User: Which sequence fits this backbone?
């Protein structure tokens, strides 16, 4: 993979530059590749802290995939499309995408290894085939790469924003503008490192939204991601003042201000209907990595969100 630094991109740290060009790779993963000598600047090894300059030539050579060390598990999957290069699935709530400390079993990767046996190894032994992610309790569509060629092609579409992801979310209140966009950088929360937040030093993040259906004190939103930062939609909607209903991390389990006593009582009743954030990845569109044919997939709302929205309609 070869890049040339434009005048607008310099100066900045090498690892930060790479993370913006390869959003599919975590920054720690890129720093590891730099340390291993897989990244060269003008033909020479460099440090993560190297300040890039205009016209620098940067080469990233991915190491050969490592044998996978995650145990396959016979976990049912809702697969809606599959061929020799990829599969598209509808992830249910409560499933972590890839193994991590404290969660080595029961993940989507464990299930995929049982189903597929072979997956792309580009993203390391713990994230084989994973092109993009969903939070543990966010439901909906994911595309998984079965080989490295498919993975590179899909990652390139993700980077160039050609891979289109649309979501449905039930949120508190009603955004003042519709349609609207939230353009705010997302990074680690300065005080709680387990959370993300809108921070000046974060990575550029852009979310488009539109009210699909208003209710008495809630709104159903259609959203489209242009970038895919960790917890992006949840963080952006909290920043907007309309947190995702039920979200236990980003303000979604406490009624917003301005509700009448009867509405607060009804809100408490609705919160009993869902134990997670009411967020669903409903639509996925991309070009097939082999044929170039545009593919589009949709996933219906899960039962808990359907029930919640029906109850919200009855509330006015």
Assistant:
């Amino acid at each position: 993979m070869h890049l040339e630094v434009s005048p607008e991109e310099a100066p900045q740290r090498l690892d930060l530059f790479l993370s913006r060009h390869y959003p599919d790779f975590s920054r720690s993963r890129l720093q590891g590749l730099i340390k291993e000598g897989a990244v060269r600047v003008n033909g020479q090894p460099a440090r993560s802290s190297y300040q890039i300059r205009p016209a620098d030539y940067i080469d990233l050579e991915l190491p050969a995939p490592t044998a996978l060390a995650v145990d396959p598990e016979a976990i049912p999957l809702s697969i809606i499309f599959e061929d020799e290069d990829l599969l598209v699935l509808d992830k249910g709530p409560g499933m972590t995408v890839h193994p991590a400390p404290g969660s080595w079993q029961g993940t989507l990767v464990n299930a995929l290894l049982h189903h597929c046996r072979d997956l792309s190894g580009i993203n390391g032994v713990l994230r084989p085939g994973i092109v993009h992610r969903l939070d543990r309790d966010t439901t909906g569509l994911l595309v998984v790469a079965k080989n490295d060629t498919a993975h590179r092609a899909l990652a390139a579409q993700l980077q160039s924003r050609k891979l289109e992801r649309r979501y449905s979310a039930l949120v508190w209140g009603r955004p003042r503008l519709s349609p609207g966009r939230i353009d705010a950088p997302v990074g680690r929360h300065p005080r709680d490192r387990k959370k993300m937040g809108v921070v000046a030093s974060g990575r550029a993040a852009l979310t488009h939204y539109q009210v699909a259906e208003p209710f008495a004190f809630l709104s159903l939103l259609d959203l489209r991601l242009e970038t895919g930062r960790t917890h992006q939609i949840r963080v952006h909607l909290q920043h907007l003042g309309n947190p995702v209903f039920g979200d236990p991390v980003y303000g979604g389990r406490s009624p917003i201000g301005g509700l009448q006593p009867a509405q607060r009582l009804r809100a408490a009743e609705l919160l009993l209907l869902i134990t997670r954030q009411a967020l669903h990845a409903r639509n996925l569109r991309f070009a097939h990595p082999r044929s170039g044919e545009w593919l589009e997939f949709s996933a219906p709302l899960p039962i808990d969100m359907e029930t919640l929205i029906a109850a919200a309609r009855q509330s006015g």
